[in-house]
Amino acid sequence: MPLISIVIPVYNVERYVSLCLDSLRAQTFSDIEIICVVDGALDRSESVVRMHEALDARVRVISKENGGVSSARNAGIRAASGKYIMFVDPDDCLDKNACKVVFDTFQKTDAEVVTFGAQCLPAFDGNVWLAKCLSTRDVVYDGFDPALLFEENSHPYIWRSAVKKELLLRESIFFNEAIRFGEDEVFHFLLYPLSKKTVLISDCLYYYRVIRDDSLMSSVAHDRILKVKRHLKIASAIFADWKQRGLLDKYPEHMLDWLLEFVLFDIHCVQIFEDREGCGLRDELNEASDALLTLVFDVAPELRDAGLSMGGIDSKIVVSMQESREKGVSWRCTKELADGFAKRLAGSKAYYKQKLGDRLAAFKRALKGVLPLPASSMQEYMMENVERERIERELSDSLQLLQIEYDSKFGLKAAGFEGR
Hints:
2 domains; hexosyltransferase activity; 9 strands; Nucleotide-diphossugar_trans; alpha/beta
């Protein structure tokens, strides 16, 4: 029986999944099983993982009808025979020492959850928020402290957390299959409060491939309103879980702050777009605002009560919501409320520093459009292109080397990945 089970949901990732599996098969800690759950893939992803399965007895392939990433991960959890479970996305990679570091941490600390650091691939495609989010400090939490969720850089990505399988079975923790976006966040909001011991380590063990979406977006406003809708659905699922587990009434102030930070600024941004440009989102904006009020006043009234008693900007926001509800009109997040909440989150000094930084950044972007590119920037641009080409070559080489290894062992060409 392997000590670590690594679960990979596989769907239309034939370009990436071989390199991912290369990184898992090359782990310095070898007592692992690699569970590839093929979730109704329409490309040659299954052929790739089947070739790896034929070459390495630690690779297991499960095929199922398409049900989404949560469904695939749940199938992997149920099939896992290891004492510990790790999650890897098929377009990402693990550091070769990841499993060893994770296992050693479990052994030394007797933790039920170990969360580690990660970095973007390529590093320059990340951003300040993502870099901070993926950076974890070294700290041990005995039981649950709200700081684990609300102060640490500990979520939302589940591939940064390894879990003792016993915890998942004991508490019946699985991915919510009704959530298509943000399922990691819902999972973490159950995982951490129910873990008897959680250890965060600063080791960077995961390489997160930043795949830029080249499709044409309709507008920033449309993207923001879609984000709000998704975040409200995520919040609704988390509140339902916390109510069922008796957690919501223990930490209502923290949850109100988290909810407001999760949706408030995007709602305010869409309101500004709608007021200035009339981008046709009035109905969707009103629908999102009404859904937020439903969450605070009907689904989780503990948040309303906490907000009214907290004082300061939180109380002002909840009172404003309550007044809109009593009048039967959609709630509007004013600039005063948005700025007040941002200032409270960051502190006045940091808030004004950020404001100044944003204006300077906008000024620099404007200058870039009219001034010639300096030599240093051109050099940086060329180096980035070289790195992108190296990463692309790595993907292609992985498929070709897989074909060579397969042919060498079985003496036939099964999938024909040469030159791709």
